[in-house]
Every structure is written in C-alpha cells, then in structure tokens.
Amino acid sequence: MDWKKLLGSIRESVDEELRLRNAYLAAENCILRQQIPGRVQLSASDRQALAELGQQMGKKVLEEIATVAKPDTILSWHRTFADQKVGSSAPPKSVGRPRIDKEI
C-alpha cells in the first residue's frame, strides 16, 4: 500500500472525527444557552481563556462561532490581558530629571 494513500485516509478520518466533535459541541452549546436566562457571567480566567483561543482563531472564525460575546469584545479582552502582562513585568520608570541627594 502506498504510504501517501494511507496517510490521506488517516487524515480524512481524523478530520471527520473533529468535524463531528465540533458539531456535537456546537449543538450542546446551543441547547445549554437556551436553558440559561439572561447573560452568562464570566470570570477573569474565563475571559482570558476565551481571549487566548479567540486570538489564535482570528476575527472571521469568531464571527461564525462566538456566542458568549462579540468577536471584537473577545479580541479586546486579549489586548487587555496582553497589556497587563507587559505592564506588570517592570516597575514604572519615573519621569523627568532624577532627584539630587540632600547630601550633595
């Protein structure tokens, strides 16, 4: 058997399984969302997880699948969390001329 044909058939079966899993999860999500009245409350860790995955997928994919928040909102969460990571790594620098010691 040709290894390219074998690899192609394995890839097709894996792709089909992933499509079926995705379809199941989408249907389950739809059913559960119908049972929840009002807005879904998200914690900061929930927002961060959605933001990281949403950034990897991109806005076009998010427009098709996002139901908890708008794609722009999810991507703004990512920017906020990214800014927090950058801002918390180094202490803020003082602005202006350095102070002169009283001893001098």
Task: Describe, in plain words, how this protein is organized in 3D.
The protein is mainly alpha-helical and 104 residues long. Helices cover 70% and strands 0% of the residues. The chain has helices at residues 3-35, 44-57, 59-65, 71-89. The longest helix is centred in the N-terminal third of the chain and has 33 residues, at 3-35. It is elongated. The relative contact order is 0.07. The mean pLDDT is 83.
Question: Concise description?
Answer:
The protein has 104 residues and is mainly alpha-helical. The chain has four helices and no strands. The protein has helices spanning 3-35, 44-57, 59-65, 71-89.
Q: Please, what is the average pLDDT? A: 83
How far the N terminus sits from the C terminus, by CA atoms, comes to: 86 Å
Low-pLDDT stretches: none
Beta-strand percentage range: under 5%
Q: Which value, in Å, is the CA radius of gyration?
A: 24 Å
Question: How many beta-strand segments?
Answer: 0
- Helix and strand sequence: HHHH
Characterize the largest beta sheet: strand count, sense, and whether it forms a barrel: none
Structural class based on helices, strands and sheet pairing: mainly alpha
